[in-house]
């Protein structure tokens, strides 16, 4: 049991009226700070003026504890076929409309080479459904996945709505996907709030979505948070964000850390540790199959279908 939970467990009196908890009276904790309890909503409201400052400070501490945890992997996770971490370069991954699974183009390329050699119908490497031959067929597949509350399908369709300048449709899809925990949707919403000039810029909502994306392993969102902290003079927090992103393999954050080391913002031992972690994260995304797919792409021989 954590120290916070232990402290809350030992706190058996209402913070406002002082009444003790028993079999009849059940105290409810303050959901923001988890540090005090109340016997009723009335007591909580009465105690709010005294508790407000400490509550906000403690809530910020709890938020930072979650925010600055190192994710085990990026938000993209592993390729479901080869089980290697997906590349950070989005041009080297693809989302199949039938199952809305992200997979590396190395596996997709290898699958189509096998199908071509055996002379069989082209299917998805993951779910084995036939690959749609038109954009309309791919859209129908995504629509079916959206009806099943697939956040990946919502995020992808939202991106396509944005390309078509249907910003209201994109907002609706990304909002729903974010509610289902999709990191990319949170990131896109943060970008949308940043560029929205139809109303006054909502910086609070922008940062909330950026933080939610970063917590889920979105390295670009994490890098942006570092830039935001740096612009506001909070260099220690900025470097913490850059270190987390670099550990996930983000090149831009690694450059920021190098600059931070030169300027004395990052210690030598921390810099060395991040260099090793960054290189390990990058190496983990490489494989001969992926290199072959990239080489085929450069030569114009890629076997990866558009849909």
Nutshell version of this structure?
With about 300 residues, the protein is mainly alpha-helical.
Number of helices: 13
Q: Uncertain runs with pLDDT below 50, 5 residues or more?
A: 1-8
- Decide which structural class fits the backbone: mainly alpha
Order of helices and strands: HEEHEEHHHHHHHHHHH
Major beta sheet, strand line-up: 1-2
Shape: globular
The helical percent reads 55-70%
Helices and strands in order:
Layout: H1 3-10, E1 28-29, E2 37-38, H2 41-67, E3 93-95, E4 102-104, H3 105-118, H4 135-147, H5 151-163, H6 167-179, H7 183-195, H8 203-215, H9 219-231, H10 235-247, H11 251-262, H12 268-284, H13 288-298
Antiparallel strand pairs: 1-2, 3-4
Explain this structure.
The chain is mainly α and about 300 residues long. It has helices at about 5-10, 40-65, 105-120, 135-145, 150-165, 165-180, 185-195, 205-215, 220-230, 235-245, 250-260, 270-285, 290-300, and strands spanning about 30, 35-40, 95, 100-105. Helix 4 crosses helix 5 (about 150-165), helix 6 crosses helix 7 and helix 7 packs antiparallel against helix 8. The longest helix is centred in the N-terminal third of the chain and has 27 residues, at about 40-65. It is globular.
């Amino acid at each position: 049991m954590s120290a916070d939970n232990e402290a809350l467990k030992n706190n058996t009196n209402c913070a406002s009226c002082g009444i003790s908890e028993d079999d009849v009276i059940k105290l409810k904790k303050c959901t923001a700070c988890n540090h005090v309890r109340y016997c009723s909503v009335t007591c909580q409201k009465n105690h709010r003026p005294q508790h407000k400052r400490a509550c906000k400070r403690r809530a910020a501490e709890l938020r930072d504890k979650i925010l600055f945890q190192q994710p085990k992997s990026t938000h993209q996770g592993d390729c479901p076929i080869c089980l290697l971490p997906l590349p950070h370069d989005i041009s080297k991954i693809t989302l199949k409309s039938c199952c809305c699974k992200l997979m590396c183009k190395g596996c997709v390329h290898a699958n189509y080479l096998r199908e071509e050699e055996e002379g069989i119908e082209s299917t998805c490497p993951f779910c084995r459904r036939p690959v749609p031959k038109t954009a309309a067929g791919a859209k129908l597949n995504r629509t079916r996945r959206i009806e099943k509350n697939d956040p990946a399908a919502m995020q992808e369709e939202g991106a396509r709505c944005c390309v078509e300048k249907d910003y209201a449709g994109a907002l609706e899809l990304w909002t729903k996907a974010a509610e289902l925990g999709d990191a990319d949707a949170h990131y896109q919403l943060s970008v949308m709030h940043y560029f929205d000039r139809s109303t006054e810029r909502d910086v609070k909502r922008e940062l909330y979505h950026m933080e939610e994306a970063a917590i889920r392993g979105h390295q670009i969102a994490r890098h942006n948070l570092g830039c935001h902290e740096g612009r506001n003079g909070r260099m220690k927090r900025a470097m913490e964000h850059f270190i987390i992103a670099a550990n996930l393999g983000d090149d831009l954050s690694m450059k920021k850390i190098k600059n931070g080391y030169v300027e004395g913002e990052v210690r030598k031992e921390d810099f060395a540790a991040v260099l090793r972690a960054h290189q390990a994260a990058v190496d983990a995304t490489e494989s001969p199959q992926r290199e072959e797919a990239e080489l085929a792409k450069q030569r114009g021989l890629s076997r990866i279908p558009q849909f």
